[in-house]
Structure formats: structure tokens, C-alpha cells
Amino acid sequence: MNIQWYPGHMTKTRRMIVDQIKNVDAVCEILDSRIPISSRNPDIDVLTEGKPRLIVLNRVDQADPEGTKQWAAYFRAKGYAVLESDAKAGVGTTKFAAAIRELLADKLRAYAEKGMAGRVVRVMILGIPNVGKSTFINKIAGRKTAKTEDRPGVTRSKQWVPIDRGLELLDTPGILWPKFEDQSVGLNLAYTGAVKDDILDIETLGCHLMCYLSEHYPENLKTGYKLTALPEREEEENDVAYGYRLLEAAGRKRGFLISGGEVDTERMAKILLDEFRGGKLGRFTLELPQ
Ligand code: G4P
User: In terms of Cα–Cα distance, which of 215, 251, 249 is closest to 229?
Assistant: First the structure.
């Protein structure tokens, strides 16, 4: 898979995190609840070691609620505080300040005992592109803050965003990509639109997505494309070949035909990805805790 990534830019971001970590009381890591592992940068654990962590499972409106429940339990069991959010609608975001204060309850109590009750709590916000970081920050700050650029080549300095009198966020510029070692990570990021479609040709991406949905969410596929039954998968038929037949079946139902009566599978693949991303096929979680 031809995924662009930017080692120089990543190195700068890492350096900034290492440099600033001493200035914050906690770290808030924003993840896409549909792909909580694929949307994580594993280096964050090492870079922020020892800091209390709040995991925000964002985009819950787009994820399967059962999947979100499992992920919230998974991260809580690992000792993180968890907040579920739909930053676009502002659901869950109002609980952010309270979640941070609860996470830091012991520290805040110690400050109060030392007569430092008014001390400002500082939180570093981290997340890979497209998880909803800016939307989340804007919602909790109650206004539009300048977007910290995550495009390579554009350098913006860090910014402190006040939330209330006792709470400030450190919005980190720069990009943090997850690890692309596993093909499924690349596919998950492409399905959700976090990386450009050109990592794979759109038809192949559509084949993989069709195949995934047929295994995990067959009813959504049947309803979405008015298929009474999904074609049987043949023995030893690989994902792309089977996905292609699903694209054909859905495309035929939609009437996407080209000369000779063949199905325009490329058009169908584009529609599938658009409808998947736009929530028209339902809510999906693309990976579950092992
Ligand atoms: P980033 O900073 O992490 O890169 O992400 P950003 O906030 O820019 O969000 C990327 C897109 O995802 C935006 O849509 C934003 O509205 C949407 N988004 C963010 N959080 C959520 C969420 O919890 N639920 C849903 N459904 N969408 C979310 P856009 O199409 O780029 O812009 P717009 O049309 O919404 O203005």
C-alpha cells in the first residue's frame, strides 16, 4: 500500500511532545471509536509514560454501540479514564472538564492541602489526523480555535487553549501517524477517510470493504443494497474476488450498468465508500478488542 508518511515531521512532533510533557498534568488521547487501535500512535505510550491519561472515544455516533461498549471496558481495564464523545454534535464533550478533574483527583486534593487550590490544570491533547481533534477542542473551548496545522511543511507553534478558569489544553501541532505495518490498519484508515483514497485503487478498497461488511454486518449490506441474500462465498475465494462479486450484485441492483450489460463496479465502489462514510449504511466498528 502506498501510504505517504512523513518521518521528518513525525520526529519534530515527537520532540515537541518530549519537550512539553513536563508542563502538563495529564494527556488526553483522541481516538476514532470505529478503529481505536488503527487510529492510535503506539509511541504515545512511551512518550507520555507516567502521565494520567484520558482516552476520548470520538465519533461514537458513527460506531456500533456494542463495539464502543467493549472498547470503553478494554481501555478502563488498562487503567485509563474513558470519555465517549460525538464532538460534532457536542455529545460527551461537556463531561470533559469533570473527567479530567476526576482523573487528577488525588493531585488536586494535594494542591488544595498545600493552599494551591487555584492552580491551573494543563492537559496535552494528542491524536492522529481525522479523529476529530479540532472539532473536539472547539466544542470544549466553546469557540473556534485556530486549527493547528497537521500538514507537513507547515509549522505552527503549540497553542494553549483555555477551557475554564482552572483548565488549559495544549493543542499540539504536527502529525502523528499510527503504524502502518499491518495491512488492516491501512485499510481501516482508508475506509474511514483518514488517509486519501489513492493508497489503493478505489475498486480494490471497495472490494475489501464489501468483504468485511459481508462477514460482520451482512444485514446492513442486504438492507442498504436491497439484496435478498448475499452471494455465497466460494471455497478459497480471496477477499478481493468475493468483494468484487458483492460490488457487482449491489451495482446491478442500483442499475449501474455499462455497455454490454456489465456492472460499473468502480462507480459502485465509490458509492459504497461514500455511503459508508456518510453513515447511510449504519454504524460500524471495524475492529474489536482481541
Ligand atoms: P482532526 O482535527 O482530527 O483532523 O479532525 P477534524 O476535527 O477536522 O474533523 C474531521 C471531520 O470529522 C470533520 O468533518 C468533522 O466535522 C468530523 N467529525 C469530528 N468529530 C466527529 C464526530 O464525533 N462525529 C461525526 N459524525 N463527525 C465528526 P468535515 O466533513 O471535514 O467537516 P464538516 O462538514 O463537519 O464541517
Answer: 249
Report the b/e string of 253-279 with b at 16+ CB within 10 A.
eeebeeeeeebbbbbbbbbbbeebeee
Domains in the chain, start-ordered, CATH in brackets?
8-171 (3.40.50.300), 201-277 (1.10.1580.10)
* Residue 11 CB neighbour total at 10 angstroms: 11
Q: Is 145 in the pocket of ligand 1 (CB under 6 A)?
A: no
- Decide: 86 in ligand 1 pocket, CB within 6 A: yes
Regarding predicted confidence, which is higher, 184 or 239?
A: 239
**What is the chain's mean pLDDT, rounded?**
89
Q: Residues with Cβ < 8 Å from 276, sequence gap 6 or more? A: 191, 209, 213, 284
This prediction has a pTM of 0.92
Question: Quick one: which atom of ligand 1 is closest to the CA of 279?
Answer: 26
**DSSP designation for 23:** G
- The answer to whether the CB of 87 is under 6 A from ligand 1 is yes
Mutate which of 56, 128, 135, 192 for ligand 1 pocket (most atoms within 8 A of beta carbon) = 135
What distance in Å separates the CA atoms of residue 21 and residue 138, rounded to the nearest whole number? Answer: 22
pLDDT for res 287: 95
- How far is the centre of ligand 1, averaged over its atoms, from the C-alpha of 33 (Å)? 13
